[in-house]
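#structure-requests
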Amino acid sequence: MTFRSRLMIAFGVVALAPLVVIAAGVRREMDQRLTAQDDRRAAALAAVAAADLSRRGASIGARLASLADALTDDNRFRLAVTQGDATQRAYVLDLAGRAMRLTGLSMLQIQDAAGRIVSSGHFRNEYDRLEPDLPALLAAAGGAALVRARTPDGPLLALARVDSVRLGGRTFALVGGEAVDSAFLARLAPGGDFSIGLSLPGESGIATATAARPNSHAVVVSRTSIPYIAAAAGGARSVQAATLTLSRSTAALDALRRSVDIWFVAAIAVTATIALAASTWLAARVSRPLRELAEQTSRVDLDRLDVDFSTDRDDEIGALSRLLGVMTRRLSATAVRERDAERRAAVGDLARQVNHDVKNGLAPIRHVLRHLAQVQRDEPARLAAVFAERRPTLDASVEYLDTLARNYARLSPRLDVAPCDANAVARAVAAGASLPRSAALVLELAEDLPPVRADALVLRRILENLVTNACDALDGRGGTVTIATARAEGSAQLTVRDTGSGMTRDQLNRAFDDFYTTKPGGTGLGLSIVRRLVADLGGAVRVDTEPGAGTSVSVTLPPNDHQPGPARPAERQ
């Protein structure tokens, strides 16, 4: 992520976070307060609706009581029902209808003690029909209850009550009520965003008195239970519970929330735009000099330390530019000193390596000359024969030194890689080896050894360094140095073992380091040269040693068909 992006994000967070928190807090507080206010209003309206329903029930009861008083004084009705005066039958049949209209009821029926209907105002043809359970159920309801009554136009749902009148020793029940329909519920509804609905057990609800706004969500505020005399299976009736539901529409509150949200979103968008513009302007002012400084810095390397960081700025970027200028000047001075030191170190390393390789090449010559001097002193007659016998060793050593000199003259010798007989190189090294007194050199060469892909000179240098190290490990004591060859996974392996003192774990860990030696007068280059030469050939080196048990160094070379690849590191065991 770029500095510009980070700056824009930081500006956005700083500018928008407080605004978002304020918006969320204001909206939450507004929502809670308006909801609480609506809940209190809804509770008050629910109480008003319940009280109104109770008053209507009481009003029905008062009208029935007034009707009962009127029937007590009605002599024609008394004669008809107590003495069976047939001339008054038409009067009795029409009595309930007249009384229903006078009292403003929607249903009214008069029943005798047996439950027989003697007069019905809402359905005249119900005369003489038995309905003995209705008065008892209304009385058991303890007040007004909802009932279903038959009319010529169909069933009528009414809020009914029961009263009674006693005439001539006989008791008559008066069942009357008002129709419960949309108009009835409308008189109960508080208006506004509130609506009232009635739900009967097992039936769909009656249409609400005040409909909620289109596509708005209605929330139930309260539910009131009303006794309902429902017909059950077989015609029997029972008192059940109907539900009067008061609901509130949330359309107005939802519209207010949407309006507040729109304003808050608009404020956030404007703030974000301003923050983006400000952060872009500031990022441009900051990032441009930094980008220019980065471009200058990218031109700095060890070969080019003359980059000019001079500036006339007096801010932090100017201080950074001046600091970079000081650093490049220091680096320039340090690079000069480092190159001097590297040249001196390279010359010293090269001198020590040349000294080490020349000594290895001179050792066979010294050994042959010492042998010839001994023969001249003890057996002069055999000098010519011995000279002829040892001459190949002298020629090979001189050729080795000559090739070595040519390679060092080029300073970076090119490997002359070709199929090479490792056994022949091992025999040449063994013939020119200079061993301590009481020491023996043993050759264990595999006859079926395949040719290896190597430079014969480099391979000889490897073996001569290993044999020299093995002889030094004998410390002038008696012992054995063994040069062995063997097959190893399709390639050749050359091993030089000695019966010397061996190495400790710490000595083994540093054995391949340049200039590390434990011998007085040693150069410490033997194994490090071996490691580099083996790496040049694409081979691997493994060292096995134990203190007091000698050392074995194995060099695994690639087969003749091997393609050069990355060298493996030396292994220690």
